[in-house]
Amino acid sequence: MAIRNKNRVLNNFAMSGMTDIVFLLLIFFMLTSTLIAPNAVKLLMPSPGRTPVTVESSVPTVTVYSNSRITVDGVTIQYENLGTVLDAKLAGQAEPTVKVVTSPQVSVEDAVQVMNIAAERNYTVVIKLL
Amino acid sequence: MSGMTDIVFLLLIFFMLTTTLIVPASRHVELPESNNQTQASPVLVLSIANDKTVYVEDQSYTMSELEPVLRRMLEPFGDTPTIRLNADRSLVMEEVFAVLNIAKRNRYRVILGTKPVS
Questions:
Q1: Least Cα separation, residue A1 to chain B (angstroms)
Q2: Residue of B93, B100, B114, B117 best to disrupt the A interface, most CBs of A under 10 A
Q3: Residue-wise pLDDT tens digits, A65-74
């Protein structure tokens, strides 16, 4: 009886397909772990008692009013100058912190704009309601 | 030919990821713009729409119902879970602080969701 096995074992093993899949998975995980840092602003609220008063006095207070008026430590300034004013006040500080005080009727957009200026410069932003 | 196909697929996947995943879905709100990114990974998304309706994972609540709901949902996540607050850009800060006060009482960390500057 001539029984012949039609299935033949291939001697050559193709690795390129597996390499493709491995590279795809590698890139997928690289992207999911790094690029997906979401766009967001960290919101910190002041915790009473934890920060000594002496340190707090060196923290500039940016106040945003509902008519888009911005003051830094009580002095009214233009939005465009906020960055330079903060830079001047916080120059040389090890842990620069900005306190952003907003009036209750300020829109989220206006508040975020101010927080952006500080966050862009890697200052810690603490927010508080007026 | 297969080499080119590989590159095309890689580019396709790259662009799919960079365009969609970086702007997290926020159906009810128009987010404020900011290029600031944070590494914190939120366990829950909370949205406040323009009409002051609060959405927790697409379920709508009023501000007064929010605290018990958050407590129940965040219980499994340990001591200081992070929540992402997607507040509409035209909303007033008073509403944001209402959520922040709840977060402060319950020791939640909050990040304010934004979208990249266009």
A1: 44
A2: B93
A3: 988 889 999 8
Whole-number Å distance between alpha carbons of B86 and B38: 14
Using CA atoms, how far apart are residues B106 and A63, in angstroms rounded to an integer? 27
CA dist., res. B73 & res. B44, Å (int): 8
pLDDT tens digits, A76-119: 999 888 989 999 988 888 888 899 999 989 999 889 988 888 88
Q: The pTM is what? A: 0.73
Tell me which chain A residue has its CA closest to the CA of residue B31: A109
Residues of A in contact with B14 (CB under 8 A): 27, 31
CA distance A96 to B14: 37
The sign of the dihedral angle between the CA atoms of A42, A43, A47, A53 is: positive
Nearest CA in chain B to A46: B104
Q: What ipTM was estimated for this complex?
A: 0.75
Residues β-bridged to residue A100: A62, A127
Residue type, A8: R
- What letter does residue B64 receive in the DSSP assignment? G
A41 pairs with which residues across the strands?
B112
